[in-house]
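Supplementary notes for students who missed Thursday's class. We covered one full example, reproduced here. Read the sequence, then the structure, then the short commentary at the end.
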Amino acid sequence: MAGFVYILCASMSFACYYMLRSGYKKNRFKLLFWSSLGFLGFALNNVLLFVDQVVIDSYDLSVVRTVPALIGVVTLLYGLISDTV
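Structure (token representation):
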């Protein structure tokens, strides 16, 4: 059941990435671009969470799976700050 939730979270994050990316291609707002990159990082984090918890149970990938989430948060924060200045 937990694996299903991880896959569902990853697919929803990727769907948000796709919608934000297509919105950026239409309107060319910088905030949409940075938000899409942030959600891509969140989607990668959720995929790695699924791999860590369900597929590979013998290794701890917590540090590896935290890196895409950190990159996603930093890019989203950078986009928010640079868009307001």
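Commentary. Helices lie at 2-27, 30-55, 62-84. The mean pLDDT is 95. If anything here is unclear, bring it to office hours.
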